[in-house]
């Protein structure tokens, strides 16, 4: 089976701050670093490091950053046939991280905005029954709808991580097999200050399963049958940027390998805990060997997203 990640890729520039600036204020950063990123690329790398086959569909520019993206994906063993090369600069994100490890992100999304899958991507020919299609919020809602409709016609499972939230996702919720949201995203989409009540609203709107990530508190799985809470190990957070992508990618990779959500989610939480204990985004992700070390000896077979 294959995890098809349809999303974005970009260059992340990370600034380390003691605190976030107030409006109109200029402050001096403690340091900065650059790394490849983008939610699509991040989740594709995380999924690939679980040992499953991954293909990334994303738009990049015909520039040095785009070349670096293609080289990095190939080094990770990720199929690059789905990359669309556009005559514009590769997208970029500015990430601010404060002394407590919290982050704020600003992105330029020219490539992602011009990307209109599944048209012209080869996704139509690549999707097979039993595959997983994973998408995020970087692309327009029409692209998510069209890709998920295609996945349904092929018998492939669909996972949606609607971050960043730019539009209403009501039209695609009935096409989503698994929705992965953080606390704020759940509350915003479900219209409730309590993330678990908000998730229940999303279930009533057509999603059969919702995973709500809760940072240091772990994550919850909600279905029509009830709710299961999974704690996170206690770690000293250095940098939380990319933690949600890491969790989502590992979760998708393990599901594609046949694990149930209840078995895969604790591993994804532990992987995210490793990531937040290190600086950086993609550079903080646990290696294939580190993920192998936290896998159950014999993952339970499931079919939660099929």
TrEMBL record:
The protein's gene is named rbsK
InterPro entries recorded for this chain?
A: PfkB_dom, Ribo/fructo_kinase, Ribokinase, Ribokinase-like
Specify the protein name: Ribokinase
State how the cofactor is bound: Requires a divalent cation, most likely magnesium in vivo, as an electrophilic catalyst to aid phosphoryl group transfer. It is the chelate of the metal and the nucleotide that is the actual substrate.
Q: Which PANTHER family match?
A: RIBOKINASE, SUGAR KINASE
Q: Does the keyword Methyltransferase apply?
A: no
**How does this protein assemble?**
Homodimer.
Gene Ontology MF term list: ATP binding; metal ion binding; ribokinase activity
| Annotated residues for binding of substrate | 10-12, 38-42, 245
């Amino acid at each position: 089976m294959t995890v098809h990640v349809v999303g974005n890729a970009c260059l992340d520039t990370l600034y380390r701050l003691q605190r976030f600036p107030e409006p109109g204020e200029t402050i001096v950063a403690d340091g900065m670093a650059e790394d490849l990123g983008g939610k699509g690329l991040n989740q594709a790398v995380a999924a690939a490091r679980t040992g499953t086959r991954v293909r990334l569909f994303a738009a990049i520019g015909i520039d040095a950053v785009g070349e670096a993206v293609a080289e990095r994906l190939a080094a990770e063993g990720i199929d690059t046939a789905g990359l669309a090369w556009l005559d514009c600069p590769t997208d970029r994100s500015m990430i601010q991280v404060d002394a407590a490890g919290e982050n704020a992100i600003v992105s330029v999304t020219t490539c992602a905005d011009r990307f209109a899958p599944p048209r012209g991507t080869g996704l139509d020919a690549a999707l097979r029954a039993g595959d997983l299609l994973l998408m995020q919020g970087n692309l327009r809602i029409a692209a998510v709808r069209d890709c998920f409709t295609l996945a349904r016609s092929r018998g492939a499972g669909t996972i949606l991580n609607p971050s960043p939230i730019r539009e209403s996702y009501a039209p695609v919720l009935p096409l989503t097999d698994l929705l992965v949201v953080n606390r704020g995203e759940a509350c915003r989409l479900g219209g409730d200050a309590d993330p678990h009540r908000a998730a229940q609203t999303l279930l009533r709107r057509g999603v059969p399963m919702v995973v709500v990530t809760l940072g240091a508190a772990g994550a919850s799985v909600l279905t029509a049958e009830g709710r299961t809470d999974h704690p996170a190990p206690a770690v000293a957070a250095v940098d939380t940027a990319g933690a949600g992508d890491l969790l989502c990618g590992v979760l998708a990779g393990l599901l594609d390998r046949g694990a149930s959500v209840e078995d895969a989610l604790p591993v994804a939480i532990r992987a995210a805990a490793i990531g937040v204990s290190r600086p950086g985004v993609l550079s903080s992700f646990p290696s294939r060997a580190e993920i192998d070390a936290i896998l159950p000896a014999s993952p339970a077979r499931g079919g939660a997203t099929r």
